[in-house]
Amino acid sequence: EAQVTQNPRYLITVTGKKLTVTCSQNMNHEYMSWYRQDPGLGLRQIYYSMNVEVTDKGDVPEGYKVSRKEKRNFPLILESPSPNQTSLYFCASSPHTSPGEQYFGPGTRLTVT
Amino acid sequence: QQQVKQSPQSLIVQKGGISIINCAYENTAFDYFPWYQQFPGKGPALLIAIRPDVSEKKEGRFTISFNKSAKQFSLHIMDSQPGDSATYFCAAISQGGSEKLVFGKGTKLTVNP
Description:
The complex is a heterodimer of chains A (113) and B (113).
Chain A: E1 4-7, E2 10-13, E3 19-25, E4 31-38, E5 42-51, E6 54-57, E7 65-66, E8 76-78, E9 87-94, E10 103-104, E11 108-112
Parallel strand pairs in A: 2-11
Antiparallel strand pairs in A: 1-3, 3-8, 4-5, 4-9, 5-6, 7-8, 9-10, 9-11
Chain B: E1 4-7, E2 10-14, E3 19-25, E4 33-38, E5 45-50, E6 56-59, E7 62-67, E8 72-77, E9 86-92, E10 102-103, E11 107-112
Parallel strand pairs in B: 2-11
Antiparallel strand pairs in B: 1-3, 3-8, 4-5, 4-9, 6-7, 7-8, 9-10, 9-11
């Protein structure tokens, strides 16, 4: 089954404790992206990657890191999480021929206390 | 210039009625306009999309109307059903340009039985 998977689905952590949210896709897509969703603010792009070893900042990259060492994986790293990073996070992927047709993962709900 | 403005924020429609959600953009480089549907607890999913060389696209009960000169596009849901209750996001992207998918803030649609 073609899908984007994220782990963990739920995470409660404390300020300053480094964490990684994994994202993997099995559709051989070149384009991958991370978004955060907050009430009233919609979906905001954090980082995106057009291919292996190519990443670029989205609209809200502060406090986040990403890497794209393999085509299928695009982890999101919070090196020192803060309460304002409490949010619902989505990973998405799409083929390079149509980056607007994105397939989203199920989401990761992160709470930072 | 990267913004997509979406209205209304919320919409309540009776079963069988027409739901209309509007979006406006500024960046004339955008060349692909998808709509995403998100059910509670799920990631967004591509619903329907249009390119600016056509003024309308219909898929079942869902229609996108596109007005290039006004830089506006809208989603019409005919014969709305309770199962259509979800949050809808319009988006825009310059494929081959920055390739960043820019989302509107979303419209929460409730269809009453």
